[in-house]
Write a structure and sequence with these properties.
The protein contains 6 helices and no strands. The chain is mostly helical. The longest helix has 31 residues. It is elongated, with a radius of gyration of 19 Å.
Length: 115
């Protein structure tokens, strides 16, 4: 989760710095400061979820996930262990999505910035 949050914040702030003229152009067209910043920062922040998606895609093919192995060693059936692991992966992706959304909103409102 921390990786997605940091990547989302850094990428959004870097894009806002590099594309400051586009933010000002959006404001000149009538967008609020927040809306203009979101237009620029949203695509960059979305890329922050890619490492988590890549990791989720390779689970079971390249690595044996901890929850799955732990359940098997604890005596659960492979189906039960797989269900628990799936729940863990979905929950991790949901939390990462919420974290990136919150960071993006803080960046758009100007609460997070680079010095």
């Amino acid at each position: 989760m921390l990786t997605a949050t940091v990547l989302g914040g850094r990428r959004a702030l870097d894009e806002l710095t590099a594309r400051r003229g586009e933010v000002e152009a959006g404001m000149a067209l009538g967008l609020s400061d927040r809306e203009a910043r979101l237009e620029i920062a949203r695509p960059a922040a979305a890329d922050a979820l890619l490492p988590g998606l890549d990791q989720t895609r390779t689970v079971g093919l390249v690595t044996l996930p901890g929850a799955f192995v732990g359940m098997l060693l604890g005596g659960a059936s492979p189906v039960q262990a797989g269900a628990v692991q799936l729940l863990v992966l979905v929950a991790l992706m949901a939390v990462q999505s919420v974290a990136v959304t919150v960071v993006l909103e803080l960046v758009a409102r100007g609460r997070l910035h680079q010095d």
